[in-house]
Amino acid sequence: MKKHNFSAGPCILPQSVMQKASEAVINFNNLDLSLIEISHRSKDFVDVMENARSLALEHLGLQNKGYQALFLQGGASTQFLMAAYNLLENKAAYLNTGTWSSKAIKEAKLFGEIIEVASSKNANFNYIPKEYVIPSDADYFHCTSNNTIFGTQMKEFPEVNMPLVCDMSSDIFSRVLDFSKFDLIYAGAQKNMGPAGTTLVVVKEDILGKISRTIPSMLDYTVHIGKDSMFNTPPVFAVYVSMLTLEWLKEKGGVAAAEKLNNEKASLLYTEIDRNSLFEGFVANKEDRSNMNATFNLTSESHKDAFDSLWKNAGINGLEGHRSVGGYRASMYNALPIESVQVLVDVMKELERKG
Ligand SMILES: *Cc1c(COP(=O)(O)O)cnc(C)c1O
């Protein structure tokens, strides 16, 4: 039987998507050829890329609003530098909410002055800073919507008079937001969309072309837009599986339906974390808790062996916390069924009974 997969990333994808993807590796579109052995310039693959790009914009409500969707390589980590390469002339403002924000700041510093408007580092990133001032002369403001490692999530985004750039790697397509407030969104596929190997970039075209430096072609958003996200050989398998997941999401009712289910899953688990005296949440303020990655700990380490063997025997995978936080982390991405969360909650109750 398939495990209850709470892995933080790469992570669970819909089983029907896995099935279709595996069939396409053997025989794609009844071509008697594999998806991964045909030309990326063939109509069959060009259709995949175009469908994936348009589904991404559709799910975000950004069709015909001046945005372009690209499927690039190099992970979200390459976007840390690519965003700065394309947008940073003098200085940019960053909100530091965790390891990924810190890495984005480190890369951007190679291109200009970085103002860290606020940071929760002093508390091991267990909250989202709310009071901060963004310098009005910054070239853009960058934030991380969901902090995969620490289990915090931004519920509000500041109103800014400059491009708003957001790393949405671990909560893209998980909740309804006014995505038109954002000018550049990027997300590594492997948290909620597809296999590792491609990164979704959604960019508002009118923010580009404003800086004076020359940009290497592979790192230039304008070049990729001009080539319809086919400047060089795209990661065909990762794009195809992303397309299948976006189709699956549409069948399920889109981002709004995903959000409803994600709220139910998160509420089921957080209710138990708060109720069960053997557990405590890691995040300081409940309003900052992530609906994607729930971080929690045992109140006494003496229960560790018993809890670990209970959840492993229940068929749960990937519950270990990140090394910089410890404890446990339950990642509940779109494709995780609520039944899996119920299994985890039942195990937590069982530990209490045996306690
Ligand atoms: C996983 C993750 C990244 C890193 O993504 P890569 O594709 O491995 O480079 C960046 N930001 C966030 C929020 C993440 O969760």
UniProtKB/TrEMBL annotation:
InterPro entries: Aminotrans_V_dom, Aminotrans_V_PyrdxlP_BS, Pser_aminoTfrase, PyrdxlP-dep_Trfase, PyrdxlP-dep_Trfase_major, PyrdxlP-dep_Trfase_small. It comes from the Bacteria. The keyword Transferase applies. The keyword Transferase applies. It catalyses: O-phospho-L-serine + 2-oxoglutarate = 3-phosphooxypyruvate + L-glutamate; 4-(phosphooxy)-L-threonine + 2-oxoglutarate = (R)-3-hydroxy-2-oxo-4-phosphooxybutanoate + L-glutamate. It is an enzyme of class 2 (transferase). Its EC number is 2.6.1.52. Belongs to the class-V pyridoxal-phosphate-dependent aminotransferase family. SerC subfamily. PANTHER family: PHOSPHOSERINE AMINOTRANSFERASE. This is Phosphoserine aminotransferase. The gene is serC.
